[in-house]
């Protein structure tokens, strides 16, 4: 269950950060979710020799422990890889504030409890400014009341009711389906053999 998220916020201003940037494909070889923090933003965090890029925001001392990102437009576009969400969460990211997100990325975030408040562009730009000042960059995201608190200000955000409820109640689509297993089995027994497939078409 996620009611509130609080922590240091970092501004990642570039637009159209796709899932290949968030989690490069060379890190998709694992058959488990373990170790994906190393892949999160790997090409932004490290150069070709594996050395840290000091210009990248999450490598800078004030934002190394950031758990909230304020991002540019269309964050999470591209492929459907759920590894992008897993890697971000393993890196310690608990929430990402933006104007819009790639549709599949948004769904994957909801399934895994990564909070994605949606704000209009003027609010997002104000949050960019606040997050850029280390002494002001502590945010609180109130999921229940849909408010971001930062720099002694309240900013309202959008979140569809299903996503908000899933976060507040800790709902999981698979577990929710399993709760209906008795009804599903009863339906199967009633309808078994009633649906015939014509294989000669």
Summarize the structure.
The chain is α/β, with parallel strands linked by helices and 201 residues long. 31% of the residues lie in helices and 14% in strands. The chain has a six-stranded mixed β-sheet, covered by helices on one side.
Index terms:
single chain; 201 residues; Aconitase, domain 4; six-stranded mixed beta sheet; 8 helices; globular
Give a verbal description of the structure.
By secondary structure, the chain is α/β, with parallel strands linked by helices. It has one domain (4-170): Alpha-Beta Barrel (Aconitase, domain 4). It contains 8 helices and 6 strands, in the order E-H-H-E-H-E-H-H-E-E-E-H-H-H. It has helices spanning 19-22, 42-45, 83-90, 103-112, 121-131, 161-169, 173-178, 181-191; strands at 4-12, 68-71, 95-97, 138-142, 147-150, 153-156. It has a 6-stranded mixed beta sheet with strand order 3-2-1-4-5-6, covered by helices on one side. Residues 174-178 have low confidence and may be disordered.
Quick one: CATH class? Alpha Beta
Tally the helices: what do you get?
8
CATH topology: Aconitase, domain 4
State the secondary-structure class: alpha/beta
Relative strand content: 5-15%
Largest sheet strand order? 3-2-1-4-5-6
Q: What's the shape?
A: globular
CATH architecture: Alpha-Beta Barrel
CATH homologous superfamily assignment:
Aconitase, domain 4
Query: Can you write the helix and strand succession as a string?
Result: EHHEHEHHEEEHHH
Distance from N terminus to C terminus (CA atoms, Å) equals 49 Å
Count of domain modules: 1
Instruction: Compute the number of strand runs.
Output: 6
Which runs of at least 5 residues are low in confidence (pLDDT < 50)? 174-178
Mean pLDDT metric: 90
User: What does the radius of gyration come to?
Assistant: 20 Å
């Amino acid at each position: 269950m996620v009611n509130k998220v609080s922590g240091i916020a970092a501004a990642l201003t570039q637009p159209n950060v796709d899932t290949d940037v968030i989690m490069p494909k060379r890190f998709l070889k694992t058959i488990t979710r373990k170790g994906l923090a190393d892949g999160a933003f790997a090409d932004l965090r490290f150069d070709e020799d594996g050395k840290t890029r000091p210009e990248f925001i999450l490598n800078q001392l004030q934002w190394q422990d950031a758990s909230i990102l304020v991002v540019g437009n269309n964050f999470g576009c591209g492929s459907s890889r759920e590894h992008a969400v897993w890697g971000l969460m393993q890196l310690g990211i608990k929430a990402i504030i933006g104007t819009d997100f790639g549709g599949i990325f948004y769904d994957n975030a909801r399934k895994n409890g990564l909070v994605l408040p949606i704000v209009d562009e003027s609010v997002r730009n104000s949050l960019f400014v606040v997050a850029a000042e280390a002494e002001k960059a502590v945010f609180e995201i109130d999921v229940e009341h849909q408010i971001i608190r930062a720099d002694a200000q309240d900013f309202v955000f959008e979140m569809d009711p299903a996503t908000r409820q899933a976060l507040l109640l800790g709902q999981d689509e698979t577990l929710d389906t399993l709760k209906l297993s008795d009804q599903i089995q009863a339906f199967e027994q009633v309808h078994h053999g009633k649906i015939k497939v014509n294989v000669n078409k």
